[in-house]
From TrEMBL:
Keyword field contains Transferase: yes
Catalytic activity: myo-inositol + ATP = 1D-myo-inositol 3-phosphate + ADP + H(+)
Keywords from the named record: ATP-binding, Kinase, Nucleotide-binding, Transferase
Tagged with keyword Calcium: no
Similarity comment: family membership: Belongs to the carbohydrate kinase PfkB family.
Record-given protein name: Inositol 3-kinase
Residue span(s) of domain Carbohydrate kinase PfkB: 237-310
Coiled coil: none
Organism: Paspalum notatum var. saurae
PROSITE patterns per UniProt: PFKB_KINASES_2 (PS00584)
Ranges of biased composition (kind: Acidic residues): 1-16
Residue ranges, annotated region (Disordered): 1-29, 362-381
Length: 381
């Protein structure tokens, strides 16, 4: 099953594993990633009243997790480098302290993309959203020329407002050894009032690029528009199901991955954090199904705070120790830092148990510091 059909870098027919450059230590070459998406101004509204304003946009959530969870690659305990391409206007308010965007954006003449999130007063079901999104401003789209002219080990196309053009995604595919895509970057539509809708992926210019994508992630609400049964013939499809975890579908197999408990404060960024956690799991050398555990973990961490979450160092250390312990066991031939497969390994349950302990630490920290539930970048109004 092809995962990345780059013409000058294709694998031999029948190969079912994606070859990635090897991460080395002590200052050697790292698995550099490319994140293409948006930084946004998110305005939170409940009961007709503005209750907060936060840094938003998939690029903010994704880079936050990659910076925190990617395997260290040198003696300075630094994660592999991540290049973020996101456009903002001169009105962007999160360029400096107290909680700036971690990676500098590109400035353009148009205003920064802004969303209003209208929250329901009642609890949502496991599959239905509990907020209504409306795009009130849209920044300029990201063009192919905005991307760096060099190769990357992997790329994440994580648009939220139509900013990732088809030609930009195609350029990413040529630059990156493997590309992971959030379906919302491809299928979202906006009416005259900015309300978010969806269009079938097969009716978009992105459909022809699907065979050249490694993974595509969709929420349970978006999955019908993606067409899972068709898409799985070309790439691995991941469907997130909120408190029910997620499911993976590939040509010839599928798997369900268990969730992690969380008290939901704000669902914004859960899918972005999942995809980043999943990508980090692949960087650690996990199989796709095992990596989805790490995705579920960071998705749960995201909903427990408002805005881009702040991760407690003790929790992150517990996650890192769990991954290091399980991977060094070498219990599965796919856990070697160079290749990945789709099926769960024989240490999947142990990995889940270790991450459960990290989730407990996270919960204890939030109880000890209730203000932490507001995240690091909310401006109360």
């Amino acid at each position: 099953m092809p995962l990345a059909a780059e013409p000058d870098d294709a694998r031999e027919e029948g190969e079912d594993q994606l070859q990635l450059p090897t991460t080395t230590t002590n200052g050697g070459p790292a698995l550099e990633g490319l994140v293409v998406g948006s930084y946004c101004h998110d305005v939170l509204i409940r009961g007709g009243r503005v209750v907060g304003e936060t840094l938003g946009g998939a690029a903010a959530f994704v880079s936050n997790v990659l910076d925190a969870a990617s395997p260290q690659h040198d003696a300075l305990d630094e994660p592999p480098p991540v290049v973020v391409v996101a456009k903002v206007g001169h009105d962007f308010v999160y360029a400096s302290a107290p909680a700036p965007a971690r990676h500098p954006p590109l400035l353009c003449a148009s205003p920064t993309t802004s969303f209003h999130a209208q929250f329901s007063e009642t609890a949502a079901s496991a599959h239905a959203p509990d907020r209504e999104l409306r795009r009130v401003r849209a920044c300029d789209p990201i063009c192919p020329a905005d991307l760096p002219d060099r190769r990357f080990a992997y790329g994440l196309a994580v648009g939220v407002a139509g900013e990732v053009l088809p030609e930009t995604l195609e350029r990413m595919i040529r630059l990156c050894r493997a590309v992971l895509v959030d379906a919302q970057a491809l299928i979202r539509t906006f009416d005259g009032d900015g309300a978010v809708g969806h269009v079938a992926l097969g009716d978009t210019p992105y459909a022809r690029l699907l065979p050249r994508v490694a993974f595509i992630k969709a929420s349970s609400e978006e999955a019908p528009y993606v067409g899972v049964e068709t898409a799985r013939r070309w790439c691995c499809v991941i469907v997130t199901e909120g408190r029910n975890g997620c499911r993976l579908y590939w040509d010839g197999g599928e798997a369900r991955v268990a969730p992690f408990p969380a008290v939901q404060v704000d669902p914004t960024g859960a899918g972005d954090s999942f995809l980043a956690g999943f990508a980090a799991g692949l960087l650690w050398g996990l199989s796709a199904t095992d990596a989805a555990l790490l995705g579920n973990f960071f998705g749960a961490a995201a909903v427990s705070q408002v805005g881009v979450p702040t991760f407690h160092p003790k929790m992150l250390q517990a996650v890192r120790e769990t991954l290091e312990e399980k991977i060094t066991k070498g219990s599965s031939p796919c856990i070697n830092g160079i290749t990945f497969t789709f099926e769960r390994s024989n240490m999947h349950d142990e990995l889940h148990a270790g991450l459960q302990e990290a989730a407990r630490l996270m919960s204890e920290q939030q109880q000890a510091d209730p203000a932490n539930g507001h995240g690091g970048d909310i401006c109360s109004t």
